[in-house]
Amino acid sequence: MATHPKWATKHKRKGTELRLINGRYYLYEVSSKWNPEKKRAQKITGKLLGRITKESGFIESDKAKLRKRELRVSKLCVKEYGITAFLDTHFSEYKTLLQKHFPQQWQTIIVLTYGRLVHHSAMKNMEYHYLHSYLSEQYPQLRLSPKSLTGVLRELGVKRTQITDFFKEFSKANDNILFDGTDLLSNSKKMDITKLSKSKKGTFDYLANIMFVFSIGLQLPVYYRIMPGNIKDIKSFKLCLDESQIKDAVIIADKGFYSEKNIDQLNKEQLKFIIPLRRNNKHICYDNIKSADKKNFDNFFKYEGRIIWYYSIKIGTEQVNVYLDEELKAEEIKDYLNRIESLPEKYNIESFHEKQHSFGTIALMHNGTKLPKEVYLNYKSRGQIEGMIDVLKNIVDADKSYMQNEQALEAWMFINYIALHWYYKIYQLLLTHDLNKKYAPMDLILFLKEIRKVKINDKWHNAEITAKTLELMNTIGIHIT
After folding, report:
1. Burial state string for 315-349 with b = 16 or more CB within 10 A and e = fewer than 16
2. Phi, psi of 244 (to 5 degrees)
3. How far is C-alpha 201 from the geometric centre of its chain's CA atoms?
4. Per-residue model confidence as pLDDT tens digits over 9-48
5. What confidence tens digit (pLDDT) does each residue in 151-197 have?
6. pLDDT (0 to 100) of residue 402
7. Which residue, of 245, 269, 448, 476, is most buried by count of CB atoms within 10 Å of its CB?
8. Half-sphere exposure of 398 (CA within 13 A, CB side)
9. Could you tell me if 45 and 21 are in contact, meaning their C-beta atoms sit under 8 angstroms apart?
10. Does residue 437 sit in helix, strand or coil?
11. Which secondary-structure segment (H or E) carries 95?
């Protein structure tokens, strides 16, 4: 066996082999593997690590250096950062309020809301999105595995008082609309609150019903309550107002809600309401419109550039305002006449003559003291609320629940409502900068998702972002640091 000089052997270490080739010393990786045919271990020479000289000692090969660099790169950690930073700068109010009302769970609530809004994530996938977000660095070691979340949601769901107290922070006086609810499809038959009932789509499913209060001034929901899917009781309106402690909210119902019994009960409970009547309601008098004389109207106002005429009538002891939008009337007449031509089996000129005076009208029954224009505007806010429900069901993807108990359902809905708040806050930010026609809230979220942090050698750095993203961030005033 050849004897190598000490200046060469001192660089040899475990898992390496020293070789003398053409008068030069080289250091190689070496390992062994069992050879079943020879029934003994067999040496396997690996990659060249470098060469050894008496003057310079060990000199690492270029390929070995490259492999080390590639290894470091392969261990880079990249996490979404843009939305994390945006939450800190633009939603700090929510962080403060959640700390106040949920001191033990506020971080988890923020992370789950992030998952619902940004990824429309099911609870079982929350841990994955959390670990790929910089939120996991900001709020480390949260219990978000599917098994852990079961307990987390139940713990949160029993805190109904804290949930309502949280929403009270957003209430504004005298501008609240109490909406008569929307249905929530449930995939669980284990809860008492889900009942087999007819949905607003006309199908029979296991449903829960959600009633909520909407602030016109804030353009946000400020309260919700989950009720059994088969309960449409007026007393539930009263209970919602008692729990939320919201004063002077106006109940805006749909056309199917009107009945003398319901009106009597609303008045008995001293609840303010605005209820649209069906155009064929026998109590509505269209004589003022038939005369075609505007002197028979009380007055007019403008709404979104249109002229709205109105007059008032009495139905029993209740006040009813009848509104006429002549632009809408012309559109409905044109549409009906076109249907006579295209669907003569369903539409005819005789029925047109019967309905013509009601085209372009809406009759609103109310028991408040608001002026006719205010009543009309309040009712039109229902469209904004229905748009909010559309966001809740289609954007936030909260039209159905897989929760298996009422506490988890309560927590799940609370998180979705915060996500809805964030969505509308983003919309208002775009509106402020006149960008709402070019970008939707989810567009901004996509841009923010592209902003990342990179961890190199245990230190976090902001990754490069595109010029388009940077331009949008500067326009809106979002500074990611």
Report:
1. beebbbbbbbbeebbeebeeebeeeeeeeeeebee
2. -80, -20
3. 22
4. 888 888 898 888 888 999 998 888 878 787 788 888 888 8
5. 899 999 999 999 999 988 987 667 787 776 666 666 555 555 555 55
6. 54
7. 448
8. 26
9. no
10. coil
11. helix 92-101
SS3 assignment, position 123: helix
Cα separations in angstroms, 299 against 313, 374, 380, 381: 14, 13, 19, 22
3-state secondary structure 191-224: CCCCEEEECCCCCEEEEEEEEEEEECCCCEEEEE
DSSP at 395: I
Token output for 91:
């939603």
Residue type present at position 272: K
Q: How far apart are CA 37 and CA 392, in angstroms?
A: 68
H or E element in which residue 334 lies: helix 326-342
**353 CB neighbour count, 10 Å cutoff:** 9
In whole angstroms, give the CA distance from residue 263 to residue 280: 18
This prediction's pTM: 0.71
Amino acid in the structure at residue 23: G
CB-based contacts of 156, cutoff 8 Å, min separation 6: 102, 105, 108, 109, 407, 410, 411, 414
Contact present, 129 and 121 (Cβ < 8 Å): yes
Tokens representing 247 are 């004063």
Where do runs of H (alpha helix) occur along 343-477?
349-355, 372-390, 406-432, 441-449, 467-476
Q: Which residue, chain included where needed, has tokens 């020479």?
A: 45
- Between the alpha carbon of residue 145 and those of residues 127, 130, 157, the distances in Å are 6, 10, 18
The whole-angstrom separation of Cα 294 and Cα 314 is: 19
Q: Write out the two tokens for 423.
A: 């969505």
Q: Residue 2, CB half-sphere, CA atoms under 13 Å: how many?
A: 10
Structure tokens at 251: 């109940």
Question: Which residues make Cβ contacts (< 8 Å) with residue 346, sequence separation at least 6?
Answer: 339
Map residue 70 onto helix, strand or coil: helix
Spatial CA neighbour of 360 closest among 313, 298, 303, 275:
303
Sequence spans of domains, the chain: 6-74, 78-143+405-481, 158-252+375-401, 274-369
What is the end-to-end Cα distance of the chain in Å, rounded?
A: 63
Nearest to 115 by CA among 104, 129, 103: 129
